[in-house]
Design brief:
This protein is α/β, with parallel strands linked by helices. Helices cover 36% and strands 19% of the residues. The strands form six sheets. Strands 1, 2, 3, 4, 5, 6, 14, 15, 16, 17, 18 and 19 form a twelve-stranded mixed sheet that branches. Helix 7 (138-158) packs across helix 8 (210-217) and helix 7 packs antiparallel against helix 10.
Length: 569
């Protein structure tokens, strides 16, 4: 039987008018800003002016093992799980509600190799075509604000350079929401004298820009403007720091973002309200949706389901150590999503053979899952449930092996079939989570961070490398050592760290799958995102501007004469 594609399922779904979706969560039509019939902006000031839905709202983090070509389905499970929660609420008629809070997809992966990023099968957020493409224009606004700062900086140098900026020590790069390796390193300002000062330049993908990080970590518009002003953009010829506020840039940047800062309301296939906002990558940024969106969802719901990008070593670590630390949010539980196929891949099985039972390979791949569980339980102090995203090829013996491995860690396992069955396929996982959260209701929170931000930068990096990744130690390049000294001299070092590394391994080597041992983490560069409030640590060959693959998804995306999009996953 040929199964329908994600886009075919999405296009056949019946969408509720966004006004009805808003009314389900207590928001009147006067308090939303519609973007057509099925999308809207929420004004946080209007939302928070009313009492919260629950005085004891619960926050659930969904993460996953390290991603593989076999797929894990983290976003799909998150969406299906939210639908499952609301199905249970309806069955109990308990008056409770659940909202899912997610990131917006970047067009880079959509046109690159990943395809659509709005869930899959019968667990999707809609309208998926809009969400995967321009949506409400948030990313365009973020890119415009980023590039306005770049233009003002270069114009300042051209117009006499009153701040005495050293063109060879300009830190700020331009941004575009597309995978384009050609723009990683360029020379700008070529041509005549009137065309600007010639210097080395480059582009990052928008989701890796500091403006995106600030956008996602700001508490409100006023906080956003302050953070934008605190961006470190360059050094002077006498090695003094230059900030965006020195260029009088932050007011205009905030003006470009005044509408984008409002969270976006959409819906799942089953009508569950979904708040999508912000979209930093977790391998090269902090990988979480906006603090404003998460807080808005928690204000409006009894349960909020959110995700953090890629594996738990990246997204979940940064969710806890950066987002929660800087916002004061505390998750009540975590879900680790895995597939039997991906675990066998971690055990050394080739992708074409993953559909066959292989107990030996599964046993060899399981340590990747157990490491992520241990991190969440022991380091961050979170109650954990494992979600097996089930496939027809999974055998009873394989599932039982995963159950036994998790039982040794005192972790429950629930099978999910949300791709095929929507919320009905996630009810077992939802019931397990509700029971787990209820068991911890009257216990003191054990949530904690992986390191002390007041420690030296190298110490913080080492803590994450050894405790989260399982590394022996770290190797700092001479460039990284020099950058750390400069950051410390400026007094900007007492911040959390955001480690940029491959998502495919606990190490910084994508080929070291499973749970590698005996490795060091190689630190190539260290920079400070002062406005965002963290220090960026670049490991191994990771790039802040991805490239397109040999056969990009864009080649298979099309639109017919009636405007219907095809090939979007």
């Amino acid at each position: 039987m040929t199964l329908p594609s994600d886009i075919e399922i999405a296009q056949k779904a019946i969408l509720r008018p966004i006004i009805e979706v808003a009314e389900k969560i207590g928001i009147s039509p006067d308090n939303i800003e519609p973007y057509g019939y099925y999308k809207a902006k929420l004004n946080p000031n209007d939302v928070f002016a009313k009492p919260p839905k629950s005085k004891n709202s619960k926050l659930i983090l969904v993460t996953a093992i390290n991603p593989t070509p076999a797929g894990e389905g983290k976003t799909t499970v998150t969406i299906g799980l939210a639908d499952a929660f609301n199905r249970i609420h309806n069955q109990k008629n308990d008056g409770k509600r659940t909202i899912v809070a997610l990131r917006e997809p970047s067009m880079g992966p959509v046109f690159g190799i990943k395809g659509g990023a709005a869930g899959g099968g019968y667990a999707q957020v809609l309208p998926m075509e809009d969400i995967n493409l321009h949506f409400t224009g948030d990313f365009h606004a973020i890119g415009a604000a980023n590039n306005l700062l770049a233009a003002l900086l270069d114009n300042h140098i051209h117009q006499g350079n009153a701040l005495n900026i050293d063109p060879k020590q300009v830190l700020w790069r331009r941004a575009i929401d597309m995978n384009d390796r050609q723009l990683r390193n360029i020379v700008s300002g070529m041509g005549r004298t009137t065309d600007g000062v010639m210097r080395e330049d480059g582009f990052d993908i928008t989701v890796a820009s500091e403006v995106m990080a600030i956008f996602c970590l700001a508490n409100d518009l006023a906080d956003l403007k302050i953070r934008l002003g605190d961006i470190l953009v360059a050094y002077t010829l006498d090695k003094k720091p230059v900030y965006a506020k020195d260029l009088k840039a932050n007011g205009a940047m905030a003006a470009l973002l005044k509408d984008a800062i409002k969270p976006n309301l959409v819906q799942t296939i089953e009508g569950t309200p979904a708040i999508l906002h912000g979209g930093p990558f977790a391998n090269i940024a902090h990988g979480c949706n906006s603090v404003i969106a998460t807080r808005t969802a928690m204000h409006l719901a009894d349960y909020t389901l959110t995700e953090a990008g890629f594996g738990a070593d990246l997204g979940a670590e940064k969710f806890c150590d950066i987002k929660c630390r800087l916002s004061g949010l505390t998750p009540n539980a975590a879900v680790v999503v895995a597939t039997i196929r991906a675990l066998k891949y971690n055990g050394g099985v080739a992708k074409e053979n993953l559909k066959y039972e292989n107990i030996i390979a599964l046993e060899q791949g399981l340590p990747n899952l157990t490491k992520h569980i241990e991190n969440l339980q022991e380091i961050f102090g979170l109650p954990v449930v494992v979600a097996i995203n089930q496939f027809e090829s999974d055998t009873d013996a394989e599932i039982e092996m995963v159950r036994k491995a998790c039982k040794r860690l005192k972790v429950d396992v629930a099978l999910t079939q949300v791709w095929e069955k929507g919320g009905a396929g996630g009810e077992a996982l939802a019931q397990t989570l509700i029971r787990l959260i209820d068991e911890h209701e009257n216990k003191a929170s054990q949530f904690k961070f992986a390191y002390d931000i007041n420690k030296p930068i190298a110490n913080k990096i080492r803590q994450v490398a050894q405790r989260i990744y399982g590394a022996n130690d770290i190797d700092l390049s001479s460039t990284a050592v020099a950058k750390i000294r400069r950051i410390e001299a400026l007094g900007l070092d007492k911040k959390p760290i955001c480690i940029a590394k491959t998502q495919y391994s606990l190490s910084d080597n994508a080929k070291l799958i499973g749970r590698p041992t005996g490795f060091n983490i190689h630190i190539r560069d260290v920079t400070v995102s002062n406005g965002a409030g963290f220090i960026v640590v670049i490991c191994g060959p990771i790039m802040k501007m991805p490239g397109l693959p040999k056969s990009p998804s864009a080649e298979r995306i099309d639109v017919d004469d009636n405007g219907n999009i095809m090939g979007l996953f």
